[in-house]
Design brief:
By secondary structure, the protein is of the alpha/beta class. The chain has two domains: 222 residues, 3-Layer(aba) Sandwich (Rossmann fold); 190 residues, Glycogen Phosphorylase B (Rossmann fold). The chain has a seven-stranded parallel sheet, sandwiched between helices. Strands 10-11-9-8-12-13-14 form a seven-stranded parallel sheet. Helix 3 runs parallel beside helix 4, helix 5 crosses helix 6 and helix 18 crosses helix 19. It is globular.
């Protein structure tokens, strides 16, 4: 037994036991979050017993559940003797999981990493295998599952160097837990190397690609660009610059680049979609300070028209489609040290993609585009401005770069099937 794991069990138990009475009192007094709290404690009163082979698939929140779609589809369509329990952690994730419902799929909240909650959940779900999407390393959950001789797989696994550096502070505990996992199906060789670096057994580690590629193919709807251009009154001659998933400090850079673009192309449009829509009021102040007229996207959708050169996206779930009407895209979180965003989302629409130097969380996606000459790194706001103007002057170059980006995405699809194959390999009765 690992000493750090014993300490972890003691501390986590003490913490949960200390706060649990207050949580339960709040639930009964307010009547809110009853399902969330009880299921997080491992209590699933309405879970349908399995008559088949059951996979417990855990996806933390919205992003992971979107990736899980393609894996779930393959499993349920290919293996009629399998059913799936899909767990998630957040209310938004749960709401999205509920929309995936189909026969042989049930959705629940995941248990907290408390020994009692985990044992209750395992008893209720009775999985034949536990599959953790991306890289969820919960010591109690993994240890107890393995102690019951239930195989464990991590699929679509990814881990940043920053996470590696943090986990190495608890190296013996992390290695102890990772050795309990039977298979790691990682998205890239770099991620495979990093998971081995912190203790995974190399013979258990596979490189299968990223199931997000499969999801991206599904987001491509050919009729969508024409619909959005009509909604936003965009003509074929308009040059459209989309800045997606921007973070604090980047909107000012985007505004500066856009104003420079307007000096060359007065009727150019700019669409700004912040990573967190609660920041829209501060972005509105920046636009007003720069004397730029703007429309909120929610208003454009309601009145089905646009009368300003800038559109500020204040809605959730629309950015991926808005990339389809861009001539050039900037992906945010990358000119400030926030780890970047998935640059392949605009690439699937055949758009040239710009991004800053801070792409730590999406190095694999950046490399895909750069290897295909479909993306360009910009070091600062002047560089961003220069590249946008270059694409505006040379539209044929923008089209070619975008085509190369899209081709790169399409060539990398099929990862979901590889992840499924590894899951099935761990279920020895197949």
């Amino acid at each position: 037994m690992n000493l750090l794991y014993v300490i972890y069990v003691c501390l986590s138990t003490l913490l949960i036991v200390s706060i649990l009475p207050f949580i339960i009192i709040c639930v009964f007094l307010t009547g809110r979050y009853k399902k969330l709290v009880f299921q997080r404690l491992g209590i699933y009163p309405k879970l349908v017993p399995s008559k088949k082979h059951r996979i417990w698939l855990h996806a933390v929140s919205v992003g992971e559940i979107n990736v899980a779609r393609s894996i779930i589809s393959i499993l349920l369509d290919t293996y009629p003797d399998i059913d799936i329990v899909l767990s998630t952690t957040t209310p938004r994730g749960y709401d999205l999981a509920e929309t995936l419902k189909r026969p042989r799929l049930q959705c629940v909240y995941s248990p907290i990493d408390f020994i009692v909650s985990v044992r209750l959940a395992l008893h209720a779900i009775q999985p034949d295998i536990l599959v953790l999407l991306e890289t969820e390393i919960w010591p109690n959950w993994i240890y107890i599952t393995k102690s019951l001789n239930i195989p464990i797989s991590i699929v679509n696994g990814r881990i940043s160097q920053k996470s590696v550096n943090g986990l190495q502070k608890f190296a013996s505990l992390v290695r102890f837990i990772l050795l309990k996992i039977d298979a790691f199906s990682m998205i890239s060789a770099d991620n495979a190397d990093r998971i081995c670096q912190i203790g995974a057994a190399p013979q258990k580690v596979h490189v299968s690609g990223n199931a997000k590629f499969d999801l991206l193919k599904q987001t491509y709807v050919p009729r969508l660009p024409a619909q959005l251009k009509q909604l936003l009154s965009i003509s074929a001659d308009n040059f459209v610059f989309v800045a997606g998933s921007t973070r604090t400090g980047e909107e000012e850079m985007v505004i500066e680049a856009y104003k420079a673009l307007c000096q060359k192309i007065p009727d150019a449009l700019c669409i700004i979609a912040p990573r967190h829509i609660e920041r829209c009021p501060s972005i509105e102040k920046a636009l007003k300070k720069s004397q730029l007229n703007y429309n909120l996207y929610s208003l454009c959708k309601n009145v089905k028209s646009r009368n300003a050169p800038v559109v500020l996206v204040d809605t959730i779930g629309d950015l991926a489609g808005l990339y389809s009407i861009a001539n050039v895209v900037f992906c945010g979180g990358s000119l400030v040290p926030q780890g970047g965003q998935n640059v392949l989302e605009p690439a699937v629409w055949g758009k040239p993609v710009l991004y800053g130097p801070y792409m730590d969380d999406f190095l694999w996606a950046r490399d895909v585009l750069e290897d295909a000459a479909g993306g360009i790194m910009v070091a600062h706001v002047d560089d961003l401005t220069k590249q946008i103007l270059e694409f505006a002057r040379h539209k044929d170059r923008a089209v070619k770069t975008g085509q190369q980006a899209r081709k790169a995405v399409l060539e990398l699809s099929g990862a979901a099937q590889k992840h499924v194959d590894i899951i099935i390999q761990q279920m020895t009765y197949f």
